[in-house]
Amino acid sequence: MSDQAVTTITTDKVNLLDFDRQGLRDFFAQLGEKPYRAEQVMKWIYHRLEDNFENMTDVGKALRAKLEASCYVGPPKTLFDKGAADGTHKWLLGMDGGNAIEAVYIPEPTRGTLCVSSQVGCGLNCQFCSTATQGFNRNLSTAEVIGQMWVAAKYLGNVTHQNRRITNVVMMGMGEPLLNFDNVVKAMSLMRDDLGFGLASKRVTLSTAGLVPMIDKLSETIDVSLAVSLHAANDELRTELVPLNKRYPIAELMASCQRWLDRKPRTSITFEYTLMKGVNDQPEHARQLIKLMRRMPTCKVNLIPFNPFPGTRFERSDAETIRAFQTQLLNANVLTMLRRTRGDDIDAACGQLKGQVLDRTRRQAEFRKRLDEGASHAA
Ligand code: SAH
User: Fold this and answer.
1) How far apart are CA 114 and CA 100, in angstroms?
2) CB neighbours (10 Å) of residue 55?
3) Domains of the chain, with CATH numbers?
4) φ, ψ for residue 19, nearest 5 deg
5) Which atom of ligand 1 lies closest to the CA of 305?
6) Under DSSP, is residue 139 helix (H, G, I), strand (E, B) or coil?
7) Phi and psi torsions of 45, nearest 5°
8) What's the pLDDT tens digit per position in 304-357?
9) How far, in Å, from the CA of 60 to the mean position of ligand 1?
C-alpha cells in the first residue's frame, strides 16, 4: 500500500489529540453525547496516557464503539530515540511523507523540562541555528505538538497530578511557535488544562524570535510564560543574527514586551542571549544589554553558550568570557542565569535539533552547497 493510501484511511477518522477541551466537547456533542463524556475520555488520554478506547473501562460499550468508528488517539510515531549520558533524552518523531521533528527531555534535580517543536523546519533563517539550515516544510498540527508531550510522558511514566516527570514545557524546539499560532495555543491549553497535563502558567513557556503582533495576540489569548530570543541589544547586529529584526526592530519588540508586562503585572519575561565568540560577547554588548534591561527590572536574561553544528561560521564564547559577561550583568543588577549545555553528546542541545525536513524553500540546498564548497576548499 502506498503512503498516500495509508494517509487517506487515517484521515477519514478524527484525531482526538487535535482538540482542546472545548473542541472535544463540541465533537462529542456532534456524536450526540454529553459534554462530561468528553472530559472522561480526556482524562484517559492525558492522565492515563491511554490510546485504546477498549481500555477506557468507565466509558460505556456503545460509546466506545462510536468512538472506534469515528476517531482515534494518534500520537506521532517514534522513529528513533536516544538517551544522553546526563539523562537528557531525545525523540525523533515521524510526521507525514518523510518529515520528522525532534523533542528533548532535560531532567534536573528539581524539575524535568520538555523542549517541544512547533514546525517542520523554520523559515526565519536565524544565522546561528541549525534548524534554519534545513529550510521550512510546514506547521505542525495541534496533535503533532501535544503528541510530542504525550509520547515523552508515556515513555517517562509521567502521571499528571501525581508523579510528574515533565514539570515544565518550553516551546524551544524546531520552528517559530508564533507563526503556528492557533495550533500551538490549542496544544498549550492542553498542557495547562487540569484534564490535560495540568501545568501552571509559569511552567509552560513560549519562546519567540520576536514576532511583535503575535506577542500581543498571545497575551490576550492564553496564560503562559514568554521568552524572547534577543541575542543582541543593537539593531545592526540583531538584524544580522535574527533577520526578523529588520521587520520588528528592538524598540518595537521591547514595546510589545512592555505591553505584555502591563497586561500581566506579576509576570516576568526571559530574554535569551546565545553567546558567540567575538560576535556578541564583548563588554560593550553587555553594556547595551544592561541599558535595555534597565527598563524591565522584573525580567531576566538567560545566557546560552552557543552550540556548534556542522557548517556553522560561529563558535562558542570562552568560559572566561561567558563568566565575565554574566558578572557584568549581575553587577548591574540584571537577573542573569547561565544555561548549562545539556545533551550535546546526542545533538540535543539548543539549536542542534534537526529532524528531517523536506524543504519547500531552497535553503537546505544552498546550505549543502556552501558546506560542500567549504569541504573542497579545505581538502
Ligand atoms: N523560534 C523560537 C524557538 C526556537 S529556538 C525562538 O527563536 O525563540 C530556541 C532557543 O535556542 C532560541 O533562543 C534560539 O535562539 C536558541 N538557539 C538557536 N540556535 C542555537 C545554537 N546553535 N546554540 C545555542 N542556542 C541556540
Assistant:
1) 17
2) 11
3) 14-72 (1.10.150.530), 77-367 (3.20.20.70)
4) -105, 135
5) 24
6) strand
7) -70, -45
8) 999 999 899 999 999 999 999 999 999 999 999 998 877 777 777 776 667 788
9) 47
